[in-house]
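Task card 7
Instruction: Convert sequence to structure tokens.
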Amino acid sequence: MTGVLPAELGEHAFLRGLPAEYIARLAQVAAAVSVPAGHRFFEEGGRAVQIWLIRTGRVALDLHVRGREPLIVETVGGGQVVGLSWVCPPYEWQYGAQALAPTTAITLDTTAVLSYCDQDPVLGYQLIRRLMTVAADRLHASRIRLLDLYAAPSQQAGAT
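Output:
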């Protein structure tokens, strides 16, 4: 892991447009990471303490479904975000995440980010708005995937 310059952090789509003073503050708790394909970022149910701003690569978000292979809910890439569960109690991952290709990202220490948000509600509001957009997109992707998974057999047969 290496440090991240504010200019690098501000280039990520998730933070683009955030005021420079907030980017500078977040850069203090940011690190650049590079992981190989197959790397598990986290497991469903684990303690959520980081967010990853994906720069390059592909990451699968998955759910464990008893009696099946993990269900990939969504695949994200450059400019997207992995790890939203750190925002609300009980601070446990709702999905698992695995790199499908070599991936570079910026990770933020969310314990520090939450502290910054408590100290500056305007920063907190800006981040929550951005996170809610990601969460709404994730929820929609999960809904579509689950509809596919649990569609009645006659509906699946008619789709071919």
